[in-house]
Design a protein that fits this description.
The protein has 324 residues and is α/β, with parallel strands linked by helices. Helices cover 39% and strands 18% of the residues.
Length: 324
């Protein structure tokens, strides 16, 4: 029996050869670890649907950030659980809010860490929607004012990057203008440019206490069936001044990540969201999968699709496994 000269298996014989020719090499330097800041002192409450993820007071946030730095993870993404909520998300721009205080505490601790802050209103409104409400409708333009105020407050606290996740039209331009007017030209914007209305966000809504009290978010988050629209959203956000764009969720939208990567020569991020994390954790706890192998395969797939930056709750575990 004759064979062609080329035998692909030659380069698969052992790990040294496989590693030498590996096209996508997963690195902890591409990862961002999400965290949930809450009021109080010495508070560390595990999210029941997200094993290993906690709602934490500022002092505990700083301690976990020390661990994040030691693991070589370069950045964290902070979400806030405020003491009070109202219809206008007034506490989103509170300089003494948990996100702002966490940023200040991380800076005071002199940790070598990039700090990204989520800019949205769902965590701060009593109705749980991502914008200002009138007659049960989310108002776009009035919401931009509140979002820009929140971003400015986070920048003043010391955020390196602000990340609007609300999906209001024009919010990148509004935030960029507000930051620049206040001499924060160097604060970058990582826009959730293609954020789909997804069933994979369920555990996050427990973690951030942000479930909508009526209706859903289909009128502002993207329809899962649309791909070309994602490219229009990305183009619009880049025109408005976004520095990094994000696709969210990651796993069901690998095709979108690849389309964005192919079309735009800018840094691309993907959010490996709470539901994706929780499914892996549940299957691993039942002994149905090899958690380490599955997590690293998922993250490699996200990076292979074109994401240079991966926001993932698996970051700490992945960092340990990649070091081993």
């Amino acid at each position: 029996m004759s064979f062609p000269t080329h035998r692909p298996r030659r380069l698969r014989r052992n790990e040294a050869l496989r590693g030498l020719v590996r096209e996508t090499k997963l690195s902890v330097s591409s990862m961002v670890y999400p965290m949930f800041a809450c009021p109080g002192v010495k508070v560390r409450t595990e999210v029941s649907s997200m094993p290993g993820i906690f709602q934490q007071s500022v002092d505990q946030i700083v301690e976990e950030c020390r661990e994040v730095v030691d693991l070589g993870i370069p950045a964290v993404l902070l979400f806030g659980l405020p003491e009070t909520k109202d219809a206008l998300a007034s506490s989103a721009a509170d300089p003494r809010g948990p996100v702002q205080r966490s940023v200040e505490a991380i800076r005071k601790a002199k940790l070598n860490l990039l700090v990204v802050t989520d800019v949205c209103l769902c965590e701060y409104t009593d109705h749980g929607h991502c914008g200002v409400i009138e007659n049960d409708q989310v108002l776009n333009d009035p919401s931009l004012i509140v979002l820009a105020d929140a971003a400015l407050s986070q920048a003043r606290a010391g955020a390196d990057i602000v990340a609007p996740s609300d999906m209001m039209d024009g919010r990148v331009a509004a935030i960029r203008r507000r930051l620049d007017e206040n001499n924060f030209e160097d604060v970058a914007i990582m826009s959730y440019a293609a954020k789909y209305c997804s069933g994979f966000y369920g555990p996050f809504r427990e973690a951030a206490q942000s479930a909508p009290q009526f209706g859903d978010r289909r009128s502002y988050q993207m329809d899962p069936g649309n791909a070309r629209e994602a490219l229009r959203e990305v183009a619009a956000d880049l025109e408005e001044g976004a520095d990094i764009i994000m696709v969210k969720p990651a796993m069901p939208y690998l095709d979108i990540i690849q389309k964005v990567r192919d079309r735009f020569d800018v840094p691309v991020a993907a959010y490996n969201v709470s539901g994706e994390y929780s499914m892996v954790k549940a299957a691993a706890r039942n002994g149905w999968i090899d958690e380490q192998r599955v997590v690293l395969e998922i993250l490699t797939g996200i990076q292979r699709a074109g994401a240079e930056i991966i926001v993932t709750y698996h970051a700490k575990d992945a960092a340990r496994w990649l070091k081993a």
